[in-house]
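Q: Structure tokens for this one, please.
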Amino acid sequence: MCLYKLEDVKRLGSSMSFPAQDHALHTLLLVLEASGSIEIGTRQIMSLQDRQFFVIEPKTSVRLKLASEQEHRAEYYYIRFKVIQESEQGHFTPAVIEDPGEQFMANDPFLIDRLREMESHVRSHNRWSRMKANIIFQEALLLLFQGASSKRQLDISQAIAKTLDYMEQYYADSINREKLAALAGVSSDYYTRAFKKIVGKSPMEYLSEIRINRAKQLIPSGDSMRSIAQSVGFSDEFYFSRKFKAMTGRSPVTYLKTLR
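A: Here is the predicted structure, written as tokens:
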């Protein structure tokens, strides 16, 4: 049986240099948002992705190279910890975790909250706070490895399908990119890129199409344009009119006259 003892945790951005590896400690690298490449020992992964994580053995070199567009947006956790195991004689000796390979965090907002709480406790000089940080670390390991998936494309496809259903049902509500990304369990930038790749347009373009198509059904009812705009999710009737014309080539009033 192995025991895990948290030593340090840092939340880093692109402006911060990657810490030097400790020869006695494992490293858990959790990528919340970043793109670029990472080299771990002799293994190089060219496409660094959001919500990816790596377990790095002691004495293993790490080189992280972020893509230029990530200059102000990269965010990742660097967690160092000790692993020991009990021998047959009852003594505890250093142990090494087997590299699980390329893994991804499950869509679990609770995990991110626990990481932030752990970081807060580990900074404290209070021994009970440090103990609390280590308990949270054990919970985070369970969440990571129980929910990990190497089938990222399947996960994000399912997550985007969930947001498509949400937009179809709640198009009249206040919806933005950040809300949809949170529903999918990924960063807003990654969500937008994946959505465009799968659907062929941006999330907000897709939402606007739903709203305008619904407005087309309501315009013949004789309700005011303000009422129709609000009922399909536009708070401003003038913006609704501009958006309607941009997508259909006609203003709502012209569209109504055409129907008549």
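A few notes: The first helix runs from residue 109 to 122. The mean pLDDT is 83.
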